[in-house]
Every structure is written in structure tokens, then in C-alpha cells.
Amino acid sequence: MASRSPYNGQRRKLVLAFDVGTTYSGISYSVLDPGRVPEIKGVTRFPAHEHVSGSSKIPTIIYYDRSGNVKAVGAETVTEEICAQAEDEQWVKAEWFKLHLRSKGGPKLAKEITKNIPPLPLNKTVVEVFADFLFYLFKCASNYIQDAHPNGVDLWASVKGEIYFVLSHPNGWGGAQQADMRRAAVTAGLIPNTTAGHARLSFVTEGEASLHFAVQNGLATSGMKNGEGVVIVDAGGGTIDISSYSAKKSASMQTFDEVAIPQCHFHGSVFVSLYAHRFLSSYLSDSSYIADIDNIIERFDKTTKLRFRNADTPQYIKFGSTRDNDAGHNIRFGQLKILGTDIAQFFKPSIDCIIEAVKTQRLIGHRVIRERLEPTSDVRKHVVLVGGFAASEYLLARVLAALKPYGLKIYRPENHVNKAVADGAVSFYLDRYVRSRISKLTYGVRSSVPYNPMDWEHRKRDADTFRRMWNGWKYVGGVFDTILPKYDLQDTLISELKTFRRAYWQEATSLREFKSSSFDIFCYHGHDTNPKWIDMDTKNYSRLCTIYADLSHLPLAASKNLIGPGKCYKLDFDIVLTLGLTELKAQVAWMERGIEKRSEAKIVYDPDTRE
């Protein structure tokens, strides 16, 4: 286990990490006392938790009544009494709701399986459902800490106002999803909707959280050398997240640099069940037991899928009593027999996804690491498998068999791989092993440049020209001006403190027009290393967000309007972006009496943005 320094803060505080998974969720935490080395602990008791045997996680399920009131959450929802009451009173079940947060412009598979994702309860938004679940997790954490710690009631009272939260999310999510999760945290009462409140909430990708978990569980002492690479495979319920890092060792500590664009694939364990549902719906279509398909899949999910190890051996799903028989469909004494080769096909898309993603990340990682080290350096790769899906022995065996020829060292921590993200999220807050990351997209703004009649690109956009009040010059619009470029081998990594900035100016006929200055930030998704025009390769541009800032207080001098009557004002400023952590930050900077000043800008994300 990696060592950790004593907490050097002046006041006690509490760090709570909520891992809201597609199918199961968990909580980890750390009490930070000045002068003491923080420890990471997990919440291991929940209401009705005895129904979730041997697990520190609970089902990500909420039952609502017909009026939209929360009736049962988590482990409570799988008890026989609650299930019976839910059926009698026609409660509405919300499950897999995390997938509704995904970007609508995401991977193609997400669109294909949308019809299979359970809908949200009527008149409930995903933010509201997410907030209800966060509220429940917070209540569980409060009760557990007060019960499990000596003087727990006093401990909880002492950290009031000093509770910091970490929410994890799939690698493929970005600002829009983080904004929704922040709104949910505010709605749940975890943090106030203020700048100070927002500062008590951090985000971390599931891949990076899993790296921190791996370091805390032996990766740092498993023989990794300086410059060696590691691929983290977080196989969860909804997504499979792949991240790659290179190790940087010193005498005192080990840190990591991100070396490839992280991947996120909708191939988690729930899709094994979806493929099973599709197969068995067809297989039982002419059987009287087709009416039991949901019960059969539920039993498959809880038993057969978990213990499946060998494609050569038939498997059985026990769903009924000894009176349930249908010889024509291999149902005998309430058990449905399925060929192991058929079940292997349910797993195949997920396993193929992991294998191909690791191979791709391995090649990219090798190339990047070799750029930084001597060409002959050893850049062996370690592969770490975590997440609830990684507990599948069949998945592990197939991945091992496929990747063994590449000389990769496959490592699956023994210590509760299903709680990797929650524990790792706390470690992310405490330890910050990842010191630099890469930009997976090119970020910029729609801008304009002085018109050049000798430039063909300008001439063909003559309809998009205009004149500026301030100088009377002719400008051409539609220019994509890069602020933060997509990472390539020649670029430096983005450290936590590295900022990217560009100078701009605006003009107006009144100072009031600067009160709500807004700037659209665009993303470029294509392969052009120097994108210039938004009307070219249009499908690869998307508006990420809009930055709002009040700049009306700046001391500005008026000048003559050179293209119309009256006066005009010119405002010079910089847009400053920071992406060194796991959340995009934006500021507006300007000079005032020779001193640079900055204002935190409000970022509003487009709901359908694709990052």
C-alpha cells in the first residue's frame, strides 16, 4: 500500500465519495484530523443490507409511489416485502437511471440500446432521481459514521460545514454531465448553490479513481519501474472505462501521467443481461413460459451470470418450481438449461471490447512513453482489472488468454474490486497521484479576423464579413480560434496548474451591454491538427458551453464609432481555461490600472453537448 502523509489542515473535515453505479452503488469516506494520517473506510451497513450478501454496495434502485414520493431505496428494494408492496400499490421502479445522464451524441451503441434502458418515472427528471439517490446515500453515510465510530455523534457534528464530496463518473462524461450531477447534489442538500458550496464538490473519472485504488492496493509495489505503463480497465455495470498512465517514481513518491485519451464503452455487465434477454425472448417465443421472461432474466443476472466459467458446460437458470416443465425448451423442474456456448456469446461483445481497447491503449502508450524516454527503454505494460464486472472469472480468463501473447502483466486486486471506484475517489482527493492529463479534444471559440482580399478562404466567405465600430476595418467571421489544443506527441501534458489563454476584444455602444458578456466555447472532434473554419467539417464541431461574466464594471474609455453615429466602447480581455484537473474551469482576465484581475465565469453547458 502506498504511504500517505499526515493531514496538515487546521480543522477536521470529512471526505465522502459516492460511487453511483448503473446497477450498484457504494460509499467510501475519510475523516481528516490535523496531524493524523488519513485512512479510507467504507460504509458497510445499509438499511436491509442483509439482503445484499457479502457486499459493501447496494442496488442503484429507487421505488416511487404514483405521486412521485420516494418509498424505498437501495437494498430495501430487493426485499420480498417491498417487492410485494410495490406490486400491490403499483409503485414505479427507477433503475439504470445513471445511463440517462449520458450524452445524447455519445457512442453509437448507446443509441441502439436506448429502447432497452428503463424509462424514468413519469414527471421525474434524471437530475431529480439522481438527487433522491444522493440524499439517501448521504443519510446512510451519516447514520453509519455516527453508529460505527466512537463518539460518532460528536464527530459528525464537528464536521458540519466541512464535508467535501467526490462524485465519480464514466471516462466519456464531461462538463454537461458534471453540471447535472452538481445540480443533483444541490437539490439533495449536499452543498449550497454558492461558489463556496460548489468548491466542496469534486469530480473524478472512474478510470482515474480506479488507478488510485490500484496504487493503494499494491500497484506501486508490484515492480513498476519509472516510465512503465499501466492500463486501467474499470468494468462496471453500465460502462467499461479504459485509461492509460505512465509511472514516474522518485525516492519519496510515485506519480502518474496520462498517456492516451481515455475510452468509455457501453459494454458493462448489464449488456450481458440484455443480450440474454434478446436471446431467450426469441428462444421462448412459442413457449408458455415466455410470460416469465423477466423473472428468468432476473435469476440469470443474480446467479448464472455470476458463476459462469466454462463455455463447454451447460448452465441452468432456476426460476420456478418442480411443476414447471417444458421438454421442448429445455425446462425441467423449474430450471432452464442453456448451452455454455450461448452464454459465452452474451459475454463476447464486452470481452472483445476490453481486449481491443487494451491493445489500442497499449500501442498509443508505448509510442507516447518512448517519446519521453530513450528509444530502447523498457515500457512494459501492466493491466489492472477492477469493477464489479471484473469479478467474473469467465471474463478474467478470456482477457488473460487474449492478452498473454503481448507480454502484459494482468493484475486484479484481491481487495474488493467492486468498491474500487469509491475508495479510489477518496484517494484521488487525498493523494492526487495523477499529476498531468491530456486534452482529448480541441477547445476554442468562434471568432473573426481582419479580411484579407488576397486570401481565397476569405474571399469565398464574403457574405460573412462585417465592419468593426472601433477601427472601421472589415472582418470575416466563422473562424475557429483554438484556446486549448488536442493533445499530440509534441505537446506538453496538462498539469494541474497549467492554463490556456487567448486574448479577445468586444465592442459595444453602451457599457450596459457588457453586464452579461457571453462567450461560446466550441469543441472540435476531428483529426485536423489545426482547424480554422467552423463551416468546414461541420459535423465535428459542437458547442460545449457558454461562459457568462459581468464585465460592466471595467473602466472603459469611449471612442468615436467609425461605422455609425455616436460613440463605442472596446473591451480587451483574455479567456482562460484550466483542464489540469478533471473538470473544465473558465475565467475572464483583464488589466486594470496595470494589474491583471480575474473573474470566475459562470459556465452553462448545452444539454446535448458531446465531449
UniProtKB/TrEMBL annotation:
Gene3D superfamilies: 3.30.420.40
Name the UniProt record assigns to this protein: Heat shock 70 kDa protein 12A
Entry superkingdom: Eukaryota
Organism taxonomic ancestry: Eukaryota, Fungi, Dikarya, Basidiomycota, Agaricomycotina
